[in-house]
Amino acid sequence: MKAAREIELKLDCDAGDLAALAVHPLLDSQEAGTLTLRATYYDTDAGDLRAAGLSLRVRRETGPDGERVIQTLKAGAGGAGLFDRAEWERAIPGPAPDRAALDDTPADKVLAEAGEPEIAARFSTVIERGVRPIRYGASTIAVTLDRGRIETPGGEVPVCEAELELSEGDPTDLFALAQALAETVPLRLGALTKSERGEAALAGRLDRPSKAERVGLDSDANAGEAFAAVARACLRHLRLNEAVFLENRDPEALHQIRVALRRLRSAFTLFRPLLAADPAAATLRDEIKRVTEPFGRARNLDVFLDETLAPEIERRPDETGLHDLRALLLPERERAYAVVLAILDSAAWRGLIIDLVAWIEAGPWRRSGTERERPAPKFAAEVLERLRRRIKRRGRRLDRLEPEARHQVRIEAKKLRYGAEFFAGLYAEGKARRRHRAFVAALAALQDHLGALNDIATAHEIGAGLIPPESRSGDAPDPAAALFSAGLVATDVEARSESLLKDAAEAHAALLEVRPFWR
């Protein structure tokens, strides 16, 4: 069966926003159709389809034209927002999956290799869908407004989203329409399909922070395709953790937001040769850095309170000044979190993320220069080799470097680590895979020691910048005791510097002895 292509921009919102979209001037004048969609998603007990990047559903559609049952297999995803997927769809007679309808699809091979296991229901969805065909720019776009729920054995998860699907025309019109709608309705880039959301709910992961996922790269990809895949993965990482932080203010989610942002900015740097001809690349990178600068203050306070001060309190529970110091810093963290939340809640932030995905998918960089056509493995090898040489040169006598010079080595090590992770899919076979694993482990050891040294510097900065209340009253913390304890903490963590410097220098030497996996 030949696959059709589905190019779809997903936008998350709440129920009130969905109602506002329904009467938006760009949509309200269009004739709307309404469907009731009841779907069940299937997989084997071992998750064979899911592991292969496939999702299988059987959906009963009820609308003005009657009722039909459709079986759909989907493959692939676009990361965050834009989902460009192959799909195999067929009408079937009943509510159970039709195995014969999967013949000549990727699922056929996956199931055959797994020994033809049984396919069982995983979860269901019930969706009320409003559909509006829109002519926008030079394109025909199907705008769907979905409201409903995902039903799992553990409970229900609400669904509220808008989807813009390109029926005919240019994908750039999808983004132009999204930006026009987002001017008056607070829309966020979607990161999960309904299938992914259902699986996350089953696993209890919907409200948990997420680490960066492996970037799917084929060895025959070119540099432009590699950049697009990396950038999509960074945005997905960002949006998954943004949703968690907005929901429950989890400190690890904030940390992962910052990791995603650093990875994205590093991608702009690593792929600079193919982005240089597009001025928007530097503009977007600088804007990301400017807007998210306050996130660092919140994260630094998290690290100090949870990873530096908490062990000190546990070690010396009777030192009241340590408790006073914590009492002074907790409101500081609350204020820092409030700044982060204000940024994430702003229309400027939501618009920036939509602008980013629009530029990644349809920006001028895709039409300028020849660097993007170079084979990704060759491009990756040159980038990684250049970073390794830079770390080798700048990290000489690492234990004797001034803090600022050492910090630069840490930055370069991060870029190399991110680059090694971005390009891992190009080195996934045999000897190259083993070398990649050894190289990343050695690089991680260097990063850990340099990161610990950076945490010491942060502890000094927080202590030096502490401004306690001028007077104490009631149960308020003792300012003098807090300042004194801040000094004690700084002294304690500073005592670790010498051994950390030695360990960092040894890790640097060990990294240089590991054979690069790209050679």
Describe the structure.
By secondary structure, this protein is of the alpha+beta class. The chain contains 18 helices and 9 strands. The chain is 54% helix and 19% strand. It has an 8-stranded antiparallel barrel with strand order 1-5-4-3-2-6-7-8. The chain is globular. It starts with a strand and ends in a 6-residue tail after the last helix. The mean pLDDT is 90.
Provide keyphrases for this structure.
single chain; 519 residues; alpha+beta; 18 helices; 54% helix
Range of helix content:
40-55%
SSE series:
EHHEHEEEHEEEHEHHHHHHHHHHHHH
Arithmetic mean of pLDDT: 90
Strand content: 15-25%
Structural class assignment: alpha+beta
Main beta-sheet annotation: 8 strands, antiparallel, barrel
Straight-line distance between termini:
41 Å
Helices, by number, come to 18
Number of strands: 9
Strand line-up of the largest beta sheet = 1-5-4-3-2-6-7-8
Please state the CA-atom Rg, rounded to the nearest Å. 26 Å
Shape verdict: globular
Poorly predicted ranges: none
